[in-house]
Amino acid sequence: MILSGGAGTRLRPITHTSAKQLVPVANKPILFYGIEALKEAGISQIGIIVGDTEDEIREAVGDGSAWGVSITYIRQEAPLGLAHAVLTAAGFLADTPFVMYLGDNLIKEGIADFVDEFRRKDVDALILLAHVTEPQRFGVAELDGSRIVRLVEKPEQPPSDLALVGAYMFRPSILEASRSITPSWRDELEITDAIQHLIDHGHRVEAHVIDGWWKDTGHLEDLLEANRIVLENIEARCDGSIDADSRVDGRVIVEEGAEVVRSSVRGPAIIGKGTRIIDSYIGPFTSIYYGVTVEGSELEHSIVMENSSIANIPGRIENSLIGKNVEICRCFELPKTFRFVLGDNSRVGLI
């Protein structure tokens, strides 16, 4: 089960009109990484919890045949918590063990080892944990050996540095636990409360600690870092065109139909299908999605979504997330003024 129903308030204004799980990291929607991780773990029946962005997610994912899996869409009436999502999917889960994967999370090493360990063990839940530098920001687990004895949400004095990562393995007992808890102060049924209910009633809950990186991409800074980490592992490829007056250094992917004209691209970077880079500089850790035009401008350490246009910007754009169908241009007409059409919670920096 993949959760893809949240509102994505921390990535607004992008998520006012788009699903946060479809924001691209290295030119692949975040949600696709989760589907691939489940497929690699040998899971072929996947239910996706959806909300107001259901139509967009359905259009992007389809029936799952592109990955060799079967997708079922499960509508959650409102984002009322992860345990509520489990109850919403009860009919799909049909009293079988299952993995719950948060659709806006990236886990470098995947979850195949995690799933295999759960299959070998007689436990009611196996929870994925990772060492973090600021456990106060997360749900934190207190362990006795490999057994979880207590979960604490964003504690001032954390009992450990082990934070809950966005993947969980459960047996059907989690359904009864989810029915037994009450809403939190956020008026949500929290999965941490349901897991704690299992622990308090004698069920065995164990931890699986990962060593590789993991990212919850709900914040801009984490999204850009995830993009950087994924780009560090790409291999150079050119399926488009690079003219003789351009220079490409390092690991750069130029996808089919993309053009690089009189420009410099320094990798790691990826230029998406049908995108045109003209008289511009594209710096490291930049992902430009499909159908974009960049002319007379400089970008670095940024993500540009589909069908946007950036033209004649005098300074370098960096550390930025630019949404789809966005137009950023310099106006040469007099009087010299700034003109904006900006959505709620937008942020603009000027020099």
Structural summary, described in words:
This protein is α/β, with parallel strands linked by helices and 351 residues long. The protein folds into two domains: 2-230, Spore Coat Polysaccharide Biosynthesis Protein SpsA, Chain A, CATH 3.90.550; 235-329, Hexapeptide repeat proteins (UDP N-Acetylglucosamine Acyltransferase, domain 1). 21% of the residues lie in helices and 32% in strands. The protein contains nine helices and 30 strands. The strands form seven sheets. It has a seven-stranded mixed β-sheet with strand order 5-4-1-6-11-8-12, with helices on both faces. A hairpin with a 2-residue loop joins strand 2 (24-25) and strand 3 (28-29). The protein starts with a strand and ends in a 22-residue tail after the last strand. The model has no long low-confidence stretch (mean pLDDT 89).
